[in-house]
Amino acid sequence: MKNATPDNYQPSRSGARKPMVRDLAEDEQPRERFIRFGAESLTDTELLAILVRTGSRKMNVIDTCRKLLQHFGGLHKMVRRNWRELRVIEGVADVKAITLEAAFELSRRLQSRGNGKTVFLRTPDDVAGYFGPRLRDLQTEQFVVVFMNAAKAIMGHQVISKGGKTATIVDPAEVMRQAIMNEANSVIVVHNHPSANLRASKADIAITKKLMQAGQMLDIPIDDHIIIAGYDYLSMRSEGIMG
Hints:
This protein has helices at about 30-35, 45-50, 60-70, 75-80, 95-115, 125-135, 170-180, 200-220; strands at about 140-150, 155-160, 185-190, 220-230, 230-235. With about 240 residues, the protein is an alpha+beta fold. It has two domains: about 20-110; about 115-235, Cytidine Deaminase, domain 2 (3-Layer(aba) Sandwich), CATH 3.40.140. The chain has a five-stranded mixed β-sheet, with helices on both faces. The longest helix has 20 residues, at about 95-115. The termini are far apart.
């Protein structure tokens, strides 16, 4: 008579059976804990495990996700990575990595869109609250132009330039062209510092001055220039840089 083999058996190279998540006590399994106690009761590792679903021949999904977090230095750094970079751990291939990046992007969109109503940007806090989730996790600089109507409601926005980790090149003429095409009454410009350095660089100040001059010529004022640096921000208007 042949020995019965459990259906969750996964042999390792040494022939030893690797413990799987289903081997854990029921109240230790991520999905069961989610159902019984709610999402807020789960650790970052357990929530990731629900998305990743399975591990590899060498590691169960909990260990896989724990190692993934350790590799990137925590969740906040991990969400900055694209799906190709997330494939660094065995057991996280294309489909799983794409699932993770998609989940991170949905989270950013929910944070930035609020309740779905018209978005007004009347204070630096408003701008940072809307664009912070979109920009703070990026690994390269992006320069965004926001088109406003007379009531300071967003009419649209456009990424004008994408740069490296420390700088991006912006053409004031292109900014103004986009503002005219979008019939903007005024403009706010926003860019991120991937380094999380909150200071405005000489280049940041110089481009702000050029944009202000171009805006004055076309009667499309630049309301503010906001720098997103991680979870902080700087308003050039509030700092007195724009006069």
